[in-house]
Design goal:
Length: about 190
Amino acid sequence: MKTLITALFGIALLSFTTGIDKPMLDKEEAKKAYFFLNTVRANVTAYAKELQLPNDIKITTRALMWNDTLAKVAEAKALDMATRNYFAHVDPDGVGMNYYIDKAGYKLDKYQVKTKRQNSFESISAGYNTGEEVIKSLIIDTWDPVNLGHRKHLLGMEGWAGTTDIGIGFARGTVNNKFTTYVSILIAKH
């Protein structure tokens, strides 16, 4: 019994000192989310029932192109939400994604960065284990079922039809986080 307790203490100490209990990016799930979203966009009728979409839905079928700049900004946001244990479009410092996207070098129009709080390009999600679950929840729009803003954003509806670039950050939280995962999806065009 003493050996078992010593072994468990050793594992706990190793976890603490090696940083295993820190939020981490999961780039594989981010890419899975990206591929799944493009699959849905290319064949929305195959997913209409499962994603609770109307039969006459009009979406953009153009594939989104992975953009490394947007991905880095989305990864930083997802990791920040997991590290600081919050879930919001605007971070605890009062800064929104338009500012961060612009600062990263992805040039936006001047009207898109009027204030530091603006967010015109981000959908966020939390608590889902896989990228596919994230995309499904945002298209069904469990977070905004009245306005369906996430659905419109991801599927290229109503004003989003011209958007072509995407970056996704998928972070896994720790046992101390409110959610197990935090996801930022940026879709924009410059």
